[in-house]
What does this fold into?
Amino acid sequence: MLVTNRFVVDEGQAAAFTERAHAALTALAARPGYLRGELLRAYDDPRHWCLVTEWESVGAYRRALGGFDVKVHATPLLAESLDEPSAYETLASAAPDGEVVELASDRAARPYR
It folds into this structure.
């Protein structure tokens, strides 16, 4: 599962935003089910940022949001992201020079997952 949180940050606030984003990424990375994460900035417009995290499942991500350090360091930052869908499930993937592999939707999984 991929989570993308997009932000628009004034250039004068970039240093403070980066520090807060690093703290959020650290808190999220410590949670079970976390696979990877990145803080990204747009080449074409440096005011646009994205925090991308990948999780084992939607359940792992939702449980991570309940962690104390996540509530302190990540939740306030995530609340400032653009109001748009941010959680995406993988339905197909392909490795370099590989074939497309289709995956079942988590939406059809058992509710306790």
Notes: The helical segments are 14-29, 58-64, 68-78. Strands lie at 2-8, 34-41, 48-55, 87-88, 92-93, 101-102.
